[in-house]
Design goal:
Elements lengths: L2 H16 L3 H9 L8 E4 L18 E4 L4 H15 L17 H5 L7 E7 L8 H10 L4 H11 L12 H22 L3 E5 L2 E6 L7 H10 L4 E9 L3 E2 L2 E3 L4 E2 L2 H13 L5 H10 L13
Antiparallel strand pairs: 1-2, 3-5, 3-6, 4-5, 7-8, 8-9
Length: 291
């Protein structure tokens, strides 16, 4: 089969998988800029509720780049038909069905030593070239990898606000995850990741391994937010308070849930969230190593 025929067949194969037509994909790719919206969102500090600021006082911002209707539909199909079926280790919780910030925090319950760190500029730091190489590494043809990359990245990076970005980020970070899991399994450390939040915990002091953990992350081409890097026994993990025998929501969530109950609101998002957290305490949690 000559290369042009192979390319046409690969495009047909992709379109059959995601339920669209080659002419639609070609049309979108010919004017990809016209299929995105973009605005700047000011970053909020979850602990204080105030804006995050640089040293000079300037408020930190992030670029939000959601796709418009047609591209969003294609990206949803790519997520559901291509990305989601790719198996990921149980240590990874972000963007995966039936996993959440709650399931991410639960394995660290009762651990004496907890280490948390955050990946800086996680999505913007993942460039189109790296996404393409990840797809090729997953045994997609060069043509398929090219189209998938162009349909899921914009301005040469992974955009924030698309259906596919978290799944792709998980795949790009997978090699680093595997190295971290191996190190943690060898040292009786529990490891979980929720998108760009990494958490490690153990009953034994593992401070001597922190530099090695961070080196694995940075050698993978990712940036550490040292401001969000902490090592102690009492801290919040992905918005969940960790205790010896339970996990619980922070005080502000409890207060908002109480206000919902007092107001007899029909919709109770904070109450439901609080209940989802607390119901995990009703059954015994099995030890979770690095996996």
């Amino acid at each position: 089969m000559n290369s042009s025929r192979f390319k046409r067949n690969e495009l047909k194969k992709l379109c059959n998988i995601i339920g669209t037509k080659p002419v639609e994909v070609k049309s979108i790719l010919s004017n990809i800029d016209g299929h995105y919206r973009e605005w700047q969102e000011q970053k909020i500090d979850k602990k204080t509720g105030d804006f995050k600021r640089y040293k000079d006082g300037t408020i930190k911002e992030r670029s939000i780049r959601p796709p418009k209707y047609l591209l969003k539909g294609i990206q949803k199909a790519i997520k559901n038909k291509i990305l989601a079926p790719i198996p990921l280790p149980p240590s990874i919780h972000g963007g995966i069905k039936k996993r959440s910030n709650v399931t991410n925090a639960k394995p660290h319950q009762g651990k004496k030593f907890i280490f948390t760190t955050d990946l800086q500029e996680f999505y913007p730091n993942i460039k189109s070239e790296r996404v393409y190489k990840t797809f090729v590494g997953l045994k997609f043809s060069s043509h398929m990898a090219h189209w998938l990359t162009n349909l899921t990245t914009w301005k040469y990076e992974l955009p924030q606000g698309t259906p596919t970005s978290t799944h792709i980020a998980n795949l790009v970070f997978l090699d680093t995850d595997i190295q971290l899991i191996s190190l943690c399994n060898a040292n009786n450390i529990t490891y979980t990741r929720f998108v760009d939040d990494l958490t490690f915990s153990s009953q034994q002091d593992f401070k001597h391994l922190l530099n090695e953990i961070l080196s694995i992350v940075t050698s993978g081409g990712f940036k550490i937010s040292y401001r969000k890097t902490q090592y102690n026994g009492k801290q919040t993990v992905t918005g969940i308070n960790i205790f010896l025998n339970k996990i619980d929501a922070p005080e502000k969530i409890k207060q908002k849930a109480a206000m919902e109950m007092e107001a007899k609101s029909k919709l109770k998002p904070y109450t439901n969230y609080l209940n989802n957290i607390r119901k995990t305490n009703k059954k015994k949690s099995l030890p979770n190593k690095g996996q």
